[in-house]
Amino acid sequence: DAGVIQSPRHEVTEMGQEVTLRCKPISGHDYLFWYRQTMMRGLELLIYFNNNVPIDDSGMPEDRFSAKMPNASFSTLKIQPSEPRDSAVYFCASSLGYTQYFGPGTRLTVL
Amino acid sequence: GESVGLHLPTLSVQEGDNSIINCAYSNSASDYFIWYKQESGKGPQFIIDIRSNMDKRQGQRVTVLLNKTVKHLSLQIAATQPGDSAVYFCAEANAGKSTFGDGTTLTVKP
């Protein structure tokens, strides 16, 4: 298995632009998680899905952030409009049991 | 609320020595405890886990100890190698969701 796949690996954009991050979980996994990691705040859970249904989005910072999971093999995290404070590494992870398998992350820089 | 924390943000050890990374947790109802390793530029990767009804589990060069009385979790790495340099996270898992601690940065000196 190729593991969790994220794209793009790096994204540089200007403040106010829309950013879409993509994730393909491991086939057969029924949970999908989106995290944000920064030096100041560490690893933060933004939202997670079970069987494509959002379960807990309490970690989503504000209405500028939205996530979807239209099917079992694809999820997106969208930021609109983006702000410099959104700069971070965004990880997607999937799981079947308790252990989560993380993707390589998307490093987002908002200028 | 739930929280998982690590006692020390950084740990420096000599190559060949044993390393012990500690973690305190607050949710006594957690089902599983998991240690992850995050190398620079990568996502966290599973190292070892332990079910809440166990107090010790061993892997290859790693051992996890769970003390439910004081809500303490530790990761022991035997004969630490340069490749062990990374950030280590403990996490407590319940019903599919995990709560991660702040992480301990392990540096191995040659």
Please explain how this structure is put together.
The complex is a heterodimer of chains A (111) and B (110). Chain A has strands at 5-7, 10-13, 19-24, 31-38, 42-50, 53-56, 65-71, 74-79, 88-95, 100-102, 106-110. Chain A has 111 residues and is an all-beta fold. Chain A is globular, with a radius of gyration of 13 Å. Chain A starts with a strand and ends with a strand. In chain B, strands 2, 4, 5, 9, 10 and 11 form a six-stranded mixed β-sheet that branches. By secondary structure, chain B is mostly beta strands. The model of chain B has no long low-confidence stretch (mean pLDDT 91). Chain B is globular, with a radius of gyration of 13 Å. Chain B starts with a strand and ends with a strand. Classes of the chains: A mainly beta (111), B mainly beta (110). The interface between A and B is medium-sized, with 21 and 19 residues.
State the main characteristics.
heterodimer; A: 111 residues; mainly beta; 7-stranded mixed sheet; 4-stranded antiparallel sheet; globular; B: 110 residues
